[in-house]
């Protein structure tokens, strides 16, 4: 069974805002490979508190791959693996939320939390933070660097395994009963989403504005509403920004029509994917 430690850093309070990912692969009871990558969040909104933790700023990820590209080669590795994480509910939540936000399938895997492991097998430890446990097992690392955190998590798990006398980490997971199965989830159907969106725009205008509506961030951070409306020549996007008063195809409208979601604050990403068909741009 593959064993991989994983760690995410996020840009803001939302679980679907990863800005970095780190992984460490374990084979034959040792770390054999490590990986780290910055990620460009769909919403480039970084909270000062998050920046204060990991030091990653918007400018650092401007040229980084988006989540689907950053994870393309990693998701097959996670599929069927035992995935370790420190405070696993957070990292598992980030993975699940971001996969869902992009309409991507979730692989089937088993998660094991090293925080829970340490509490179970090292009772009386003064602190169970990653840095405190790394110090206990003699691991030096840069805390809140995703790649380094994944490595520290892996080494902590191996130390617990050795002290517990387990043959390997899957055996330790079975022994403790702390592993959690993460069920697979299929990708959302593009055709189904487009059909749902078409049904929505066939409804009265008031319902259309509710169901096919986006909020985007302007160049100065001002939020604008972009809604799908029906005109004499079909459906079009209408924006509340000043530029849209002079030309209907303002930059916010053009960006959404092209599938660009970098400045999207809220709105269904699946509806963005359906826009070319609704606007007659897919032919």
TrEMBL record:
Superkingdom field: Bacteria
Keyword vocabulary terms for this entry: Metal-binding, Zinc, Zinc-finger
Residue ranges occupied by any SWIM-type domain in the UniProt entry: 224-261
A GO cellular-component term linked to this record: cytosol
InterPro entries cross-referenced by the UniProt entry: Ribonucl_H (IPR013520), RNaseH-like_sf (IPR012337), RNaseH_sf (IPR036397), Znf_SWIM (IPR007527)
PROSITE patterns: ZF_SWIM (PS50966)
The keyword Metal-binding appears for this protein: yes
BP term (GO), one: DNA metabolic process
Gene Ontology molecular function, alphabetical: 3'-5' exonuclease activity; nucleic acid binding; zinc ion binding
Keyword Plastid: no
A Pfam entry, by short name: RNase_T
Function: DNA polymerase III is a complex, multichain enzyme responsible for most of the replicative synthesis in bacteria. The epsilon subunit contain the editing function and is a proofreading 3'-5' exonuclease.
Subunit structure: DNA polymerase III contains a core (composed of alpha, epsilon and theta chains) that associates with a tau subunit. This core dimerizes to form the POLIII' complex. PolIII' associates with the gamma complex (composed of gamma, delta, delta', psi and chi chains) and with the beta chain to form the complete DNA polymerase III complex.
Protein name: DNA polymerase III
UniProt organism field: Methylobacterium oryzihabitans
């Amino acid at each position: 069974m593959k064993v991989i430690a994983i760690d995410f850093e996020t840009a803001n309070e939302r679980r679907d805002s990863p800005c970095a990912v780190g992984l460490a692969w374990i084979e034959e009871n040792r770390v054999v490979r490590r990986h780290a990558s910055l990620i460009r969040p769909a919403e480039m909104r970084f909270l000062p508190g998050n920046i204060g933790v990991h030091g990653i700023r918007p400018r650092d990820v401007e040229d980084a791959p988006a989540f689907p590209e950053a994870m393309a080669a990693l998701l097959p590795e996670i599929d069927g693996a035992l995935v370790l994480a420190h405070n696993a509910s957070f990292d598992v939540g980030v993975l699940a939320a971001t996969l869902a936000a992009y309409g991507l399938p979730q692989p089937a895997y088993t998660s094991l939390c090293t925080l829970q492991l340490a509490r179970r097998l090292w009772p009386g430890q003064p602190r169970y933070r990653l840095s405190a446990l790394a110090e206990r097992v003699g691991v030096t690392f840069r805390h809140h660097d995703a790649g380094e955190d994944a490595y520290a998590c892996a080494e902590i798990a191996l130390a617990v395994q050795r002290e517990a006398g387990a043959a390997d980490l899957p055996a330790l997971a079975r022994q403790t009963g702390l592993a959690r199965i993460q069920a697979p989830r299929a990708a959302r159907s593009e055709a189904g989403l487009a059909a749902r969106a078409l049904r929505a725009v066939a409804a009265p205008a008031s319902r259309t504005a509710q169901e096919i509506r986006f909020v985007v961030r302007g160049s100065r951070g001002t939020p604008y509403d972009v809604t799908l409306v029906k005109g004499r020549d079909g459906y079009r996007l209408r924006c509340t920004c000043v530029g849209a008063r002079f030309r209907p195809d303002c930059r916010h409208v053009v960006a959404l029509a092209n599938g660009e979601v970098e400045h999207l604050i809220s709105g269904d990403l699946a509806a963005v994917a359906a826009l070319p068909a609704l606007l007659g741009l897919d032919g």
